[in-house]
Design brief:
Elements (H helix, E strand, L loop, with lengths): L7 H18 L7 H8 L3 H7 L3 H25 L5 H11 L7 H7 L5 H29 L7 H16 L8 H19 L11 H4 L1
Helix pairs in contact: 1-2, 1-4, 4-7, 5-7, 7-8, 8-9
Length: about 210
């Protein structure tokens, strides 16, 4: 049998994709490195050449999912022809995690994984902020937003909202989450100097 030799990056990506599928189908805790090796058809030395542990492999899977998520958000924005307010609503409401990522995120939200959860948020925010900055700048050009710092405004909004609503970072109470959600529209409008009521869609699900 002819042995298939793959380029390092190609092999690494193959391992990540196999692990992601196993984490989703079997669950992270029930998946072993041997399961991943069997799925890819590689030896122990090969998988540990790329990933020192299952936790290391999980981190790579998370990074890959963030890359895919950001690519999807970019496509969503590119395909939109609305004004800045339309695009802001689209960005915010489209920013939901796919169902197949729930098992991975559930593991991140467990005690002891705060460091990895924080890294995931940092990478996501770093990728999303430029998309928000582009829309905020469009809003400034259209006269609906007023800020000299579109990128920094995007970073501040994303960081504040993510941190103050993410139960993986801290077990916020339902009362705290609702209180903040009710305040976010007015706070965002104040920061961007947007027309009153522009971001009321953020609390529609709470009042309906």
């Amino acid at each position: 049998m002819v042995r298939t030799v793959k380029k390092p990056e190609e092999r690494r990506q193959e391992i990540i994709l196999a692990a992601a599928e196993l984490f989703r189908s079997k669950g992270y805790e029930k998946t072993t490195m041997q399961n991943v090796m069997d799925a890819v058809g590689i030896a122990k030395g090969t998988i540990y050449h790329y990933f020192k542990s299952k936790e290391d492999l999980l981190e790579a899977v998370i990074e890959q999912s963030v890359v895919e998520y950001l690519a999807g958000m970019q496509t969503t924005l590119d395909e939109s022809s609305g004004n800045a307010l339309d695009k802001m609503r689209l960005l915010i409401t489209s920013g939901q995690v796919a169902d197949e990522q729930e098992e991975i995120l559930e593991h991140l939200h467990r005690p002891g994984n705060a460091g990895m959860q924080t890294r995931q948020l940092a990478v996501t925010i770093s990728g999303l902020a430029p998309l928000y900055a582009k829309v905020i700048q469009q809003g400034c050009d259209e006269g609906v937003f007023q800020t000299e710092y579109p990128l920094e405004s995007g970073e501040l909004l994303l960081t504040g909202i993510q941190f103050l609503t993410d139960l993986g970072i801290h077990p916020w109470s339902q009362e705290e989450l609702i209180r903040r959600a009710m305040a976010f529209p007015a706070l965002i409008e104040a920061q961007l100097r947007a027309p009153k009521g522009s971001f009321n869609f953020l609390i529609e699900n709470l009042t309906n």
